[in-house]
Amino acid sequence: MLELRPNCECCDRDLPPASPNAYICSFECTFCGDCRSRLPGERCPNCGGELVRRPIRPTEKLAANPPASARTLKPGGCPPAF
After folding, report:
1. Fold category of 1-68 in CATH
2. What is the CA radius of gyration of the chain?
3. pLDDT, tens digit, for every residue of 37-71?
4. Own/partner pairs for 63-68, CB < 8 Å, 24+ apart?
5. What is d(CA 75, CA 59) in angstroms, rounded to the nearest whole number?
6. Where are the residues of the annotated region Disordered (predicted)?
7. What are the residue ranges spanned by the domains of the chain?
8. pTM for the model
């Protein structure tokens, strides 16, 4: 099951479970659409993987399957766009 991480790793923007602006790689590194568009090739800066739109978990499933609460933030932010 996806963790549904609560924030963008680059800018720390909140990305709630219903956000259509959340993008993840296969390791669930999580980025907002703005930061994704600035990443080289729109690829994950951690693993180089494809960043795809994160699915939205139905609201009625959140109580039994809550999103993650731990925030992840890259210490130096993300690299600047080329």
Report:
1. Herpes Virus-1 (3.30.40)
2. 12
3. 999 999 999 999 999 999 999 999 999 999 999 99
4. 65/1, 67/3, 67/4, 67/5, 67/6, 67/16, 67/17, 68/3, 68/4, 68/5, 68/6
5. 32
6. 61-82
7. 1-68
8. 0.91
